[in-house]
Amino acid sequence: MTVRIGTRASKLALTQTQQTADQLAAVGGFPVELVHIKSDGDVLTGSLSQMGGTGVFVAALRDALLRNECDVAIHSLKDLPTGPAVGLSLAATPRRVDVRDVLCARNGLKLADLPPNAMVGTGSPRRAAQLRSARPDLNIVDTRGNVDTRLGRVPGLPGNSTTQVVPGKSCDLDAVVLAAAGLERISRLDTVSEFLETDIMLPAAGQGSLAIECRTADAPPRAGSAEGSREVLAQALAALDDPDTRLAVTAERALLARLEAGCAAPVGAYAYRKGSLLHLEAVVCAVDGTASVRNKRATDGLTEVGATLLGIELAEVLLAAGAADIADLQAS
To answer: Would residue 33 be called left, alpha or beta, if left means φ above 0 and alpha means ψ between -120 and 50 degrees?
Structure first.
């Protein structure tokens, strides 16, 4: 059998899908085929809310799965809505890579060294809020586009072919903030001037993680009752699943779900296992950076149920501290 893997057509999506496809083929012993699916998020311009909010990058892939146009779909897990998708299962969460955000700035400048009123690009309210908290003087510029497009807004970065200043297009910003994971996957870490530690900027829930979705009938939990090619696929998916990553993202996503946080809500969350404990830290920020609620909790319940309860518990703590008054949690 040939396993058809659905992917968005962006450079980053194709790269991370090909890497995952190679792993799936290696453990499953079957050929794979990439199926390019165009999402609204790749076609439309403007903010996420203008494009339809949470799930804009995954809806087309999910539809393709349900129409049997592909057998599995690869997503950036942070793009995946927290609610259940009827007929689909989160089959595997491969080992997580670097969760941090990074600053890509002209002349190799770090966040503390950017000049007063520097122009910094990001399309993320979460990043914008935490940037304003760390540096209230910064001018935050809403940016969209693929990774190369955003890097092209900063003069002098490795790989940029132009020095011409074109407002809104090229060389018009002092820096942009991106995810380390994406730059690592497309070999553009040479553009990074600073890795922003989590005490400065907590990542988005699921950042640095991939999600492999399949139809529920093909998911690993049903492997014992599956037959033939379905059994082979289920076993391969199970082999790619990293238990610690699944626990971490389960806690982060449970927190988002309890907060009822939309895709534009300025919420950061990071969970990780250390020894016999699963730790979770989260922050809810005012968009203007003037206020925030931040806290953390841990559990020794190293199961998906335990991770879910941890996320719910920390969300309750944040809500009790006024998180819903600080930010519009349902912004999308």
So the answer is: beta
Residue 43 has pLDDT above 80, yes or no: no
Name the residues annotated as catalytic. 79
Q: How far, in Å, CA of 238 to CA of 3, rounded?
A: 15
Q: Which CATH architecture has domain 247-326?
A: 2-Layer Sandwich (3.30)
Distance (Å, whole) CA 86 – CA 74: 17
Say which residues have a Cβ less than 8 Å from residue 167's Cβ, sequence separation at least 6: none
Dihedral of the alpha carbons of 27, 229, 215, 243, in degrees to the nearest 10: -30
Strand pairing of 175-179 and 119-122? parallel
89 CB-near residues (< 8 Å, 6+ apart): 213, 214, 215, 216, 219, 221
Same fold, 3-94+209-241 and 101-196: yes
Secondary structure, 3-state, 233-290 = HHHHHHHHCCHHHHHHHHHHHHHHHHHCCCCCCCEEEEEEEECCEEEEEEEEECCCCC
Q: Is 195 helix (H, G, I), strand (E, B) or coil?
A: strand
pLDDT higher than 70, residue 158: yes
Residue 161's pLDDT band (boundaries 50, 70, 90)?
confident
Task: Say which residues have a Cβ less than 8 Å from residue 113's Cβ, sequence separation at least 6.
Answer: none
Range with lowest mean pLDDT among 24-28, 81-85, 107-111: 81-85
Q: What would the pLDDT profile of 222-278 be if each residue is shown by its tens digit?
A: 444 445 567 889 999 999 999 999 999 999 999 999 999 988 899 999 999 999 999
CATH class of the domain at 101-196: alpha beta
C-alpha 40/C-alpha 59 separation (Å) is 8
Yes or no: say if 182 and 98 are a contact pair by the CB < 8 Å rule: no
Query: Domain map of the chain by residue range?
Result: 3-94+209-241, 101-196, 247-326
What is the pTM assigned to this prediction?
Answer: 0.91
